[in-house]
Amino acid sequence: MPCPWRRSGSGWTLDSEQPALAHCGMAQDNTVPKLNFKYWLDKAIEWGQATTLECQKDVCLHLPQLQEFLHQTYEALKRMSSIVAIQQFPLIGQLLGRLCWNPFVIGYDESQKTLMWCLCCLYSSEPQNPVELKANSWIRSLLCHLLSSSKWERNGAETSTFISALGYTSADYYCHLVENIISSLVTELGGNQFNELNIQGRKKISLSESAIFSLWCRHLPSLESATLSLLDQLASLQINSLEKVACVVKDSLLPKAASHPAIFRIVNEIFKKALLETDGTPEVMTIIQVFIQLFIQVQQNENKQHKFPLKAYFPHHHQPLVIALLRRPSELPSSHWLQHLKHISDILKSIVEDTSISSFAELYEIWFLVACFGEWLDIAAEQLLKAAVAPDALLWLLAFYYCPQNENQQRTQTMVESQAVYSHLMMLYNCTVLSFGDLLPSVNNIADTEQCHTRCLITHLLTSFLLFSSGGHMIAQEFISHITETTDMSKEVCSLLIRTVYRIKHNGGENQRTVKLLNELLQKLALKV
To answer: Residue 398: which of 420, 415, 373 has the closest Cα?
Structure first.
């Protein structure tokens, strides 16, 4: 399913994300000599722990050149043994120690990471004397401090209950975490596998699930990195099976970690922005929907005593709509699906038509929530054809998904055009013998309409008709080949077929003939997409 939101001057836009300190006037000053440890040590002593406004401003002003200095220092250190490094740079210990305790320095994520890498270079993998043993202990304490520096630590007693509820471990956790990180980095440094500042793809640090979840809760960049890594990994795959996608998503541990509301909301935000940045590509939408399905499974398996309230995950949404969407189709008899879909449509329509919703941002939030539960939308298209009922509620639900904005009556026009196609398909639904020409008017509607969202909705209806009608199987291959060759709907059709195979396997309700047809169609489409 494509995302109807686009980045444009007049429509929905995304603000570029920059480090919070980027607005502090951090201008580059090339007058400072490179690797001038004396200069930066004097600065670090002058700044102290940046308790005054003047010191804070000065730190912000010098952060870009400090980051460059730390990067160059790391480049030099990684080519030396710890002993040689300390001999050549006798001031390095004092400097790094002071910088690690300056909140305005380590508040800038890049500086914090580079400080950690520099410290790891100074760590002796095989300490030979008491001095090196003491230095290692000092480095571990600094790394523990850097790893535990977060918003949660600054609120003391106020957050102790919350930290306990999230499953955070004692201070001993950090020592074990640091030992794992140091061991891994030492191995990599010794094997020349540490590729400058790029740590992606190491997978050499072995941590327990609880340690990983605690790290993600406390260190936002590591959670962001894990989420983006998952998107990159799946984007590089040719998605022809949701089982494969589900396996990769599950292995990332993100659905399980998302039991913590803070993690869920951050991952959800990243997915939301990824969808906008890719103009709603079906592959990204499919990944998001699979993640949500796995997240719900974890929630259902969780001990009720340890569950967070639903509002902790969806704080800004209409709770009756969230509750309705969270019901999985497998929880209900298929005979109740139609009634449940009408309920979802009625709630959604009352929210969307509320005059208090005035911005694109609010509308997008509602649309994204519905889109995350795309399984219900696919069932809506199927129920439209199978159930002999008034189609208005389900057609409106699909029209909202494909055209959430009704500016210039766009959604109304989509409803009119899709209603005409739907009526034509229902006349043919029970025919056991169909010809190519019987459905040609529907394909012509796809090609003729100017609105992309209307083309998508009609394609969705037509594909569902071919899969579930009495005579659709006979002409499905020929017709879907024609659709993909004459329209730009190949990815949308392929994504729908993949989702349908997955849904049938998990919910049942269809014969093996339909499953066989779906697999044959996917094999042929894989060569075209």
So the answer is: 415
